[in-house]
């Protein structure tokens, strides 16, 4: 039987697993799937609940007319103590249970490739799950550990995701470098400053090479939420006026719209009281058609499909100056030109926070820009033009490198086998 370990990057948007053969010291292959789970509204014949994970979750959800429970960005609830469980067709699911479904799917696919049951894994984690909050971080770590156990792993170590990315980059080097790694994912932006040396690849002691780590709870999902707030919510009646009392005209509460800017807040609309309030707003608005779009969005669970359109706009604007924000479904019609200047203004608050955090990070650890030999950017959010420009402006003299933005971390985690020796 081969000695195998898995490097697993459980991400907000996508999750990847690299299969590493320890004796040959090589990665056999890497699997990547969207971090999505879909529960249809119908149970299986045996009474147990069917669910679909990964890319198949998207097609199943769409084929079912976007019915059922569609769960994305589940990584973001790991640190939330307010999330204790959700019930899907009367079955209880904790945060660990939901994460385990994704890890289990990755493990099953990888086990099938190698023909054996691998129990050993190095799993990535952000430097901070929810900014610098020790209590939330401990909660998230324990939930992720439980999820790994539920998925069938018995021998597990955890590694910071940007360190994983660094070790992947180290495989490409010819000489020693001081490297600043930025891992920009869907939920977090993490930084690591370390010494990389191709002569030390596979070494069992890398503690002295890791100089500084830090992170902030901002990523691609933050950009999408900001876009939804600025450009999406007006199509769902954000500025709707209603007149419940003759002569007293009020605006529908903006809090309604904060709850359609992230998926984990959509449960806000499940209560009978809020449903009644929404019906009243609609009636007293004179059946405003844009507010009707909000009702259609909620009742038909269209949130994910709207965010798909938002993400496509973001992707387009990473390569071109103008894109269209398009959405057409169930009488909801959105068609608006968005240029790069508008988009960067929308996400400016978040990119500024990333920039300010990076300045503090360098100052805190006494890292001089002239001491940085190279930058390594990874994660899907690193492709956003404003993010690229942030690093180019801040480090004009430093070469910016990147690997595979979606698999670098998993590969680097697989190269972190030294953790099992400590």
Description:
- With 422 residues, the protein is an alpha+beta fold.
- The chain has helices spanning 55-63, 95-114, 134-150, 161-170, 220-232, 255-258, 272-284, 289-299, 303-317, 340-346, 348-364, 385-394, 408-414, and strands at 4-10, 14-21, 26-34, 37-39, 52-53, 69-71, 86-88, 91-93, 120-125, 155-160, 177-184, 189-196, 210-216, 241-245, 248-251, 322-329, 332-339, 374-378, 399-402.
- The strands form six sheets. The chain has a five-stranded mixed beta sheet with strand order 3-2-1-9-10. A five-stranded mixed beta sheet has the order 13-12-11-18-19, with helices on both faces. It has a three-stranded antiparallel beta sheet with strand order 5-4-6, with helices on both faces.
- Helix 2 packs across helix 3, helix 4 packs across helix 13 and helix 5 packs across helix 9 (303-317).
- The longest helix has 20 residues, at 95-114.
- It is globular and about 75 Å long.
């Amino acid at each position: 039987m081969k000695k195998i370990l898995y490097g697993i990057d459980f991400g907000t948007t996508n999750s990847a697993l690299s299969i590493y053969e320890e004796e040959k010291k090589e990665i056999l292959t890497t699997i990547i799937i969207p971090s999505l789970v879909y529960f249809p509204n119908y149970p299986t014949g045996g009474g147990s609940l069917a669910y679909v994970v990964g890319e198949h979750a998207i097609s199943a959800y769409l084929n079912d007319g976007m019915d059922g429970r569609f769960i994305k960005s589940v990584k973001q609830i790991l640190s939330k103590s307010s999330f204790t469980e959700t019930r899907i067709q009367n079955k209880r699911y904790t945060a660990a249970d939901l994460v385990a479904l994704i890890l289990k799917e990755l493990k099953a696919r990888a086990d099938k490739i190698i023909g054996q049951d691998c129990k050993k894994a190095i799993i990535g984690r952000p430097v901070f799950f929810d900014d610098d909050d020790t209590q939330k971080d401990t909660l998230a770590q324990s939930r992720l550990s439980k999820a790994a156990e539920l998925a069938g792993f018995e021998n597990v170590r955890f590694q910071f995701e940007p360190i994983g990315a660094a070790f992947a980059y180290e495989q490409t080097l010819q000489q020693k470098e001081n490297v600043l790694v930025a891992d920009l994912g869907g939920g977090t932006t993490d930084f690591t400053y370390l010494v990389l040396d191709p002569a030390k690849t596979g070494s069992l002691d890398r503690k002295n090479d890791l100089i500084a780590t830090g992170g902030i709870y901002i990523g691609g999902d933050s950009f999408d939420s900001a876009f939804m707030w600025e450009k999406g919510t007006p199509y769902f009646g954000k500025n709707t006026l209603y007149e419940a009392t003759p002569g007293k005209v009020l605006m529908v509460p903006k809090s309604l719209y904060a709850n359609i800017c992230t998926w984990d807040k959509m449960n806000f609309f499940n209560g009978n009281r809020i449903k009644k309030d929404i019906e009243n707003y609609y009636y007293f608005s004179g059946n405003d058609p844009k507010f009707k779009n909000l009702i259609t969005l909620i009742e038909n669970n269209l949130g994910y499909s709207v965010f798909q359109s938002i993400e496509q706009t973001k992707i387009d604007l990473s390569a071109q100056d103008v894109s269209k924000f398009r959405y057409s479904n169930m009488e909801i019609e959105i068609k608006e030109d968005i240029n790069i200047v508008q988009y960067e203004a929308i996400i400016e608050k978040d990119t500024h926070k990333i920039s300010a955090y990076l300045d503090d990070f360098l100052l805190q650890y006494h890292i001089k820009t002239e001491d940085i030999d190279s930058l390594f950017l990874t994660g899907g959010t690193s492709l956003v033009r404003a993010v690229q420009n942030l690093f180019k402006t801040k480090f004009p003299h430093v070469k910016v490198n990147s690997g595979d933005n979606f698999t670098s971390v998993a590969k680097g985690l697989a190269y972190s086998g030294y953790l099992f020796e400590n």
